[in-house]
Amino acid sequence: MIKSRVSLKDIAQRVGVSMVTVSAALNGNGRVGSDLARKIREIAREMGYRPNAAAQILKSSPKDLGLLILEKTELIRSNASIQDAMIQFMRISQERFRRCQMEWLDSSRYPNQLPHMLTDGLVGGVICYGHAENAVADFLAKSPSIPVVRLHEPGTYCVDSDMKEGIRRTIHYLFESGHRRIGMINGKNFHVYRQAKEGFELAMKELNLKTPPPFYRENEPFGNYPTEIHDLADSVLSLGPNRPTALLIDCAPIARELLHRLQQKGVNVPDDMSIVSFSNIDWEAKSSIPAISGLEYSYYNIIASAMDLLQDLMEHREPERKKISIIPDLNIRDSIKHFTPVTKKKEISDETLQGKIRSGAPNPGTVRIC
């Protein structure tokens, strides 16, 4: 016997609410509390509910969510953060029973081209990841009619990682662990790297660690790895006894390659030098030996927050906050030497963190001993 399709009425009876409430929770229409909406979506998944795609397409106003990736061609293949953002976008769209579309454009390579997603009217709102240039930057600056939420870049409505505070807290953690010579290898030219530099300089000033001068270098992210890693390793080792005992490095791939290069030169990590990567995601840093500690994005929380903002804009509601800043999590693994013990801090679950973000409460970040 073929099982009949699960209806909104079935879900409403199971949850004990009206069909209108179920429809609002599944379609993102109207005001439904976040806890109740999450409960309705979970029960709908358990019951095997599938939305009627044809009916959604035929609706007069587009409700699809769009993810627009504005990055250079070479970064799409190598940047795990972009890949994780796309995975989480599809995952959360499924959880919320929302149709979704994705598009990629290298706005530096095609300076006069605009993404179809911004102009063809087939999506109700767009989450924009990456650095916009040329025609795309001009279009976004003119307040387009379609709702747009920016990720990791300034905008009227945006979700950003507070890398400044994350770096500051990481340096304080290293200081509490007994490190006094702390250096940084940063990227350049982008918003996140300017934040990282500000956090580094602030922590150095707060902890009075400016003498001797800290090691600080900037390099092109995702450039010529072999040459850059060789030069970076030589720069660090040339300091002799004044070299850093702890080094913060932009992105896990560079941190991983530099770690291997230092090991080849006879430097033991973490006994001779501790390493912390930043502006990456957890599974990038876990694949090294030793596993690299990292100041890492949670793209589930970032994308979920962006979708909440976008939903308000698509429903013509002014969001509680136009700009959301999320402090990255510091995950402690095997690449940090602790000269003095550090008190383990309590973790915050994804569910609690999502609640704090949505309610407008400050996000304290987390330190996890992995």
What can you see in these coordinates?
- With 370 residues, the chain is of the alpha/beta class.
- The protein folds into three domains: 8-50, no CATH class; 65-161 and 300-326, Rossmann fold, CATH 3.40.50; 163-297 and 329-346 and 355-362, Rossmann fold (3-Layer(aba) Sandwich), CATH 3.40.50.2300.
- It is built from 15 helices and 13 strands.
- The protein has helices at residues 8-15, 19-27, 34-47, 53-58, 73-78, 80-95, 116-119, 134-141, 163-176, 191-206, 225-237, 252-264, 282-285, 299-314, 350-359, and strands at 65-70, 100-104, 125-130, 148-151, 158-161, 182-186, 216-218, 246-250, 274-280, 293-296, 323-326, 329-332, 367-369.
- A seven-stranded mixed sheet has the order 7-6-8-9-10-12-13, sandwiched between helices.
Q: Which properties best describe this structure?
A:
single chain; 370 residues; alpha/beta; Rossmann fold; 3 domains; seven-stranded mixed β-sheet; six-stranded parallel β-sheet; 15 helices; 13 strands; 16% strand; elongated
Apparent shape:
elongated
Give me the count of strands. Answer: 13
What would CATH call the architecture of the largest domain? 3-Layer(aba) Sandwich
Low-confidence residue ranges: 345-364
Q: What is the number of independent domains?
A: 3
Strand content: 15-25%
CATH top level label of the largest domain: Alpha Beta
Question: Structural class of the secondary elements?
Answer: alpha/beta
What share of the residues lie within helices?
40-55%
Largest sheet: 7 strands, mixed
- Helix count from the secondary structure assignment: 15
CATH topology descriptor of the largest domain = Rossmann fold
Strand order of the largest sheet: 7-6-8-9-10-12-13
* Oligomeric grouping of the chains: single chain
